[in-house]
């Protein structure tokens, strides 16, 4: 059974969107990830702008992380 990835800060299980946006915004070579809420705190922008970016990347169809 595969282990689910957990946020390194709050330990919540991560979705593919959590992992994808972390890879896109922070590091393509990351092995540990933050959930959207903790990433918003780290980037000092909150959750909403990150969710907007995820929607943009998914709708654009140009980002392999969000297909």
Summarize the structure.
It comes from Paenibacillus silvae. This protein has 67 residues and is an all-alpha fold.
Describe the protein.
The protein has 67 residues and is an all-alpha fold. The radius of gyration is 12 Å and the shape is globular. The longest helix is centred in the C-terminal third of the chain and has 14 residues, at 47-60. Helices cover 46% and strands 0% of the residues. α2 packs across α3. The chain contains three helices and no strands. This is Inhibitor of sigma-G Gin. It comes from Paenibacillus silvae.
Average of the residue pLDDT scores: 93
Strand content: under 5%
Low-confidence stretches: none
Head-to-tail CA distance between termini: 25 Å
Radius of gyration: 12 Å
Q: Give the biggest beta sheet.
A: none
Features:
mainly alpha, globular, Inhibitor of sigma-G Gin
Layout of helices and strands:
Blueprint: H1 16-25, H2 36-42, H3 47-60
Helix pairs in contact: 2-3
């Amino acid at each position: 059974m595969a282990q689910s990835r957990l946020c390194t800060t709050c330990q919540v299980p991560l979705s593919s969107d959590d992992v994808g946006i972390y890879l896109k915004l922070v590091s393509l070579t990351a092995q540990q990830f933050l959930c959207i809420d903790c990433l918003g705190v780290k980037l000092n922008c909150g959750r909403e702008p990150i969710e907007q970016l995820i929607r943009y990347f998914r709708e654009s169809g140009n980002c392999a992380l969000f297909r």
